[in-house]
Write a structure and sequence with these properties.
With 620 residues, this protein is of the alpha+beta class. It contains 20 helices and twelve strands. It holds the Pfam family LPG_synthase_C.
């Protein structure tokens, strides 16, 4: 794995306040953490009890007799799943989870206290221990109540009821059918089979033995219990899930971002991609900086550097992190530069190097020299075949020609899935993107064969957005077009060009050197293997031929344990993973986006999403 970039992490992170936290906040934070650890321990004990027959029978005997056990200690799979899930959502400080635990544990503790007033319960020391543990859990909930301030989605209760009803019908129906098919006692009425199924949904212990007309195999009992546990977990997930973050980029926010880009757009080559309309923007208190982000699977995924004045970046980052904490979103940043990574690190985020961005200085680019021999030959070969390149700003292209280019770009797309989030604009031919640059390549018969689209990078830079080519065209079209842009960039006042992003570039470069260590060589071999399906090594080599300056880009995250979740969210945002379609009753319950955003009601013509920068890279 790539090493963490310690250069981004100051030796001592700057605290948000100079004063040390008082005992009150420390006590509340400790109490909140204690509730999480209690649930984790109970989940582990319930799992052990399910796997251990003597332990399980002892717990069941205690619950059935004159003993009682601590909160959620029932030696059942449902209780284990419930405790584990509650521990996860309580760790994310969900307010709904806090209320749920208090409503269950509070009355249970009161019942235990009432039971201890009776002699037959009071004489067992284990009951006092159970009451004490349950009481301490309730006290910890009350002490740490202000720590649980993450809000949920308003549609959660309604959707949870629908999911629960469907899940119980499916699980109960399947369980009843299995009981009917495997019952060893003949003549049992349907009501007894349903009752047996419901009891087995709660416990695999002696509870269901009270239905003498039904006797099913052990594997049926366990399967029914597992099905109901899964249904229960699904209902809890829907009930406690984070808000989906449906706020999209409105017209007012887009105008404010464009004003910031006009003043500070030259700082980051990815800045213009903040104008994607499936993102949201949160501004600093002064309005001089903003963070563009999108919520995917409970992850608040920002991209690139904050937009605007670097002195106002901390205010925008604080606002973004506060918003993420309020909704229990996991904060993450894709593709931040080293400068922005340093600022994010001061706010508690860690860094992992993703790869490098290829940036070509137009003044330094030349086709001369032995190192450029391959590029020079590819350029001359395509040129001799009669291909030409037209270089224009989008605003200079007539509407009918732009419509044709959009149609061709869609036809040339490689695959049905559009890709792009952090380094793609998500639309082509939009009237608001007139300063973008289009390169159109035509063959000797004046037929369009390929196109490149670049977004502005400040006043004198371009950043690659979209690459499309006809598969029947001459090999080497992409190289030919990139070289033409670099040689003629002065015609439109461009001084630097940002090309593709090469993931894990340093691994391929350093891993091939003499003296590379075994770990680095192994990591390079793994990446080379996966390059057969994903263009990892090929992108590095395709861009290295232009002799670019490599600028590192970083993934920023709060906790290492969140990296797998962030990876899935990033893959979904970039279009590499597509979740299955939701059922119709779920889709009807979802709120729509704001008017004017892609896919929102009332939007005349949803703009096409572009492919990732790496989509159709030509290989010579």
């Amino acid at each position: 794995m790539p090493a963490r970039q310690s250069v981004l992490i100051p030796p001592q992170r700057t605290p948000r306040t100079s004063a040390r936290p008082s005992p009150g906040p420390r006590l509340r934070a400790g109490a909140a953490a204690a509730t999480v650890w209690y649930l984790r321990v109970l989940a582990l004990l319930n799992i052990v009890a399910v796997l251990s027959l003597p332990f399980r029978e002892e717990v069941h005997e205690h619950n059935a007799g004159e003993f009682f056990t601590p909160y959620l200690a029932t030696a059942g799979l449902v209780s284990a799943a419930l405790a584990l899930f509650l521990a996860m959502v309580m760790r994310r400080r969900k307010r709904a989870a806090w209320v749920f635990n208090l409503l269950l544990a509070g009355p249970l503790f009161a019942l235990y206290v009432l039971a201890l007033t009776q002699e037959r319960f009071r004489e067992h020391p284990f009951n006092w221990l159970s009451a004490a543990l349950t009481g301490l859990f309730v006290i910890a909930l009350l002490v740490g109540r202000t720590e649980f301030n993450a809000i949920g989605d308003r549609s959660n209760p309604r959707l949870a009821l629908a999911v629960g009803a469907v899940g119980i019908l499916v699980s109960g129906g399947l369980g009843t059918w299995l009981v009917d098919a495997t019952n060893k006692v003949s003549g049992a009425p349907l009501t007894d089979k349903v009752a047996y199924t419901l009891l087995r949904s709660v416990s695999v212990g002696p509870l269901a033995d009270r239905v003498p007309a039904v006797e099913s195999p052990r594997w049926v009992d366990i399967l029914i219990n597992v099905l109901m546990a899964g249904t229960f977990l699904l209902v809890l997930y829907v009930c406690f899930r984070s808000p989906r973050g449906l706020a999209l980029l409105g017209a007012e926010d887009e105008t404010r971002l464009r004003e910031l880009l006009d003043r500070h757009g030259e700082r980051d080559s990815l800045g213009y991609f903040a104008l994607r309309r499936d993102k949201a923007a949160i501004f600093s208190p002064t309005g001089k900086a903003a963070v563009a982000y999108r919520v995917v699977g409970g992850v608040s995924l920002a991209s690139g550097d904050p937009i605007g004045d670097p002195e106002a970046w901390p205010g925008a980052i604080d606002a973004w992190l506060t918003e993420a904490q309020r909704h229990a979103w996991t904060p993450a940043v894709m593709g931040a530069s080293e400068e922005a990574g340093t600022i994010y690190a001061r706010h508690g985020l860690d860094a992992l190097e993703l790869g490098d961005e290829a940036i070509v200085d137009v003044a330094d680019f030349s086709l001369d020299g032995r190192a450029m021999r391959g590029v020079r030959q590819a350029h001359k070969r395509v040129q001799r075949a009669g291909y030409t390149v037209t270089l224009r700003r989008h605003e200079d292209i007539p509407d009918d020609e732009m419509a044709l280019l959009v149609e061709r770009a869609d036809h040339w797309r490689d695959g049905a899935t559009e890709r792009g989030f952090s380094m793609a604009l998500g639309r082509l031919g939009d009237p608001g993107d007139g300063r973008c640059v289009m390169l159109e390549c035509r063959d000797a018969d004046d037929e369009p064969r390929a196109l490149l689209s670049f977004v502005p990078w400040g006043e004198h830079g371009l950043s690659l957005d979209l690459m499309r080519r006809d598969r029947e065209g001459e090999n080497g079209l992409m190289e030919f077009m990139v070289v033409e842009l670099l040689l003629r960039a002065g015609e439109i006042g461009v001084r630097r060009v940002s090309l593709n992003f090469a993931m894990f570039r340093s691994v391929f470069e350093r891993g091939a050197r003499l003296g590379a260590g075994p770990v680095l060589r192994l990591w390079r071999s793994v990446l080379t293997f996966f390059s057969r399906w994903w263009q990892i090594e090929s992108l590095y080599r395709a861009n290295a031929k232009y002799r670019p300056v490599w600028e590192p880009r970083f993934l920023l995250f709060a906790k290492s344990a969140d990296i797998p979740r962030i990876g899935l969210a990033s893959a979904r945002a970039e279009g590499f993973l597509t979740p299955p379609a939701l059922p119709s009753f779920v889709r009807r319950g979802r709120r729509h986006g704001t008017p004017g955003a892609p896919g929102a009601p009332g939007t005349p013509g949803t703009p096409e999403a572009s492919s990732a920068r790496a989509a159709d890279q030509d290989q010579s």
